[in-house]
Amino acid sequence: MSNRIALVTGGTGGIGTAICRHLYDNKIKVIAGYSHGGDATHAKEWQQEQAKQDYEFEIVYGDVSNYESCGGMIEEAQSKVGPIDILVNNAGITRDTTFKKMEVAQWEQVVRINLDSLFNVTRHVINGMLERNFGRIINISSINGQKGQFGQTNYSATKAGMHGFTKSLAQEVANKGITVNTISPGYVATEMVKKVAPEILEKIIAQIPVGRLAEPIEIARVVSFLAAEEAGFITGANFAINGGQHMY
Ligand code: CAA
After folding, report:
1. How far apart are the first and last CA of the chain?
2. Handedness of CA 34, 235, 75, 63 (dihedral sign)
3. 126 inside domain
4. How far is the CA of 189 from the centre of ligand 1 (A)?
5. How many domains does the chain have?
6. In terms of residue numbers, what domain contains 212?
7. N vs C: which end of the chain shows fewer Cβ within 10 Å?
8. CA–CA separation, 201 vs 188, rounded Å?
9. Which atom of ligand 1 is nearest to the CA of 192?
10. Residues 6+ apart with CB under 8 A from 101
11. Mean pLDDT of residues grouped by 10 in the chain (248 residues)?
12. Distance from the CA of 166 to the center of ligand 1, in angstroms?
């Protein structure tokens, strides 16, 4: 094990699990954040399942849409494992619907969980990183924050907003050994994408030059790359991993 410690929000989900495992394979101590409305059942089962496969993860509860709850999550993570060196802001949701039908709650939930979370979680770890002169912050955005998507005004707005956050914070902390980057996955084979109606998903896959969905590990590999000690000159950048679906 290296001495580096990572916190992955939404760590028990589709992309989150792959990220946790890949970081662990790279000798990093990993803490998975979960919410599930405060119900630990799923996270505990996930933790046991991972342990059976020789992946030892700590789990911590935190509602990323709530600043105080995130404070508690970071405190628990740091007291159980140690100071956070690598933060992966991965937790996110969709509430897809056309704008003309969108309810206030569908807008607000997505903004709070996908975008406010960047403030709520990162604010609690940034000063420690500054004091220790090291940090890696990796924000998981989406292809749809770059190109937009029918039915996702809420989601696309939050995922586009992440780029502004990344580029601004990157400038503020660059001289203290902290890098801040964004990854923009395309359509990945996870439960989130499986919620899209099969006939719509079929049309989307037809627009992907590589001809398939991404595997979660294809996102996780880039997270580990950015989390490495050697990645210190990469900051304020975005990494599109979308099978060629959107190029610019
Ligand atoms: N472009 C233009 N028009 C479209 C369209 C498109 N892409 N898709 C549908 N339409 C048209 C339909 O033909 C239909 O037209 P008519 O009314 O003339 O028949 C109309 O729009 C349907 O509009 P509705 O408001 O009734 O839409 P709906 O309720 O049937 O479906 C939706 C809306 C559920 C959002 C559906 O469009 C959908 O699931 N879209 C895909 C959203 C998506 O890609 N989500 C990604 C989730 S995964 C993720 O987000 C991870 C990631 O980062 C990639």
Report:
1. 39
2. negative
3. yes
4. 19
5. 1
6. 5-239
7. C
8. 11
9. 48
10. none
11. 90 98 98 93 98 98 98 98 98 98 98 98 98 98 98 98 98 98 98 95 98 98 98 98 96
12. 29
